[in-house]
């Protein structure tokens, strides 16, 4: 089905191809300059740390909802084994393990190679550069240092609800309202975290309830088409939220249009399944919605996504 006129017009408006050179594979993370990182460090006032990742466990957030995104399966391949079996019980013994999982099963970043359309990825790279061997362009391993000022736009709290309805499309006006109530000016190089409150459902009822939505149809509160230009205009470095789909679902126009506009046209790294509940409570208590955010993904070479264990430092 041809892309809608609305989509094509917005894609042309926000496209960053060539902005940082024809070989660039970082996209909007280029906004995180040394000056941005130095300024972000000033957000640390108390040394309080707030983890934003879900535990990686076999009964995790995906609940089998997305094929291939298998929750982690932990296997022990050494259990209290001696280095030298003849050395006796007081010698060195070791336990060791490995994990099988989908790289986007838990709290994660989507890499720029995660999606394509019309045969192209970010910066105009040929989608055929993604093969069974992985992503020779725009692999997640290029994201070697994701540290910047983080800001929480707590849309659910701004609306006075625990959880946004499903589906609910978070608009540019919603983001402005959340920023205004938080006393924030979103700056170039910021990593924006958008809270819908949906992670509270995961904590209360588990993965299936979190994934399926109230009508058991996968509906999701998330980012809208109008939010795309807002993120572009603010020179946001990356964006993440507390949902499985990230964008409103069912989609407003073309299927998963926000993924295409962010990852392909803007080169905007996108995160999902972030646990923002403790951060929301902390920010509401002290009235401070900015923090140093450390969120570098595991550098799996040529992968198109990767787990991350982000930490907000206030």
In short:
With 314 residues, this protein is of the alpha/beta class. It contains nine helices and 15 strands.
Strand fraction band?
15-25%
- Unreliable stretches: none
**What structural category characterises the helix and strand content?**
alpha/beta
Silhouette: globular
Cα separation of the termini: 47 Å
The CATH superfamily of the largest domain turns out to be Putative cyclase
CATH topology of the largest domain: Glucose Oxidase, domain 1
Output the CATH class name of the largest domain: Alpha Beta
Largest sheet: 9 strands, mixed
Order of helices and strands: HHEEEEEEEHEHEHHEHEHEHEEE
Domain tally:
2
Instruction: Give helix % range.
Output: 10-25%
Number of helices: 9
Indicate the mean pLDDT: 95
How do the strands of the widest beta sheet line up side by side?
1-15-13-7-9-11-12-4-14
Give the number of DSSP strands: 15
Rg from alpha-carbon coordinates: 20 Å
**Would you identify the CATH architecture of the largest domain?**
3-Layer(bba) Sandwich
Describe this structure in words.
- The protein has nine helices and 15 strands.
- The chain is of the alpha/beta class and 314 residues long.
- The strands form four sheets. It has a nine-stranded mixed sheet with strand order 1-15-13-7-9-11-12-4-14, with helices on both faces. It has a two-stranded antiparallel sheet with strand order 2-3.
- β11 (238-241), α8 (257-266) and β12 (269-272) form a beta-alpha-beta unit.
- The longest helix is centred in the middle third of the chain and has 11 residues, at 172-182.
- 46% of the residues are buried.
- The model has no long low-confidence stretch (mean pLDDT 95).
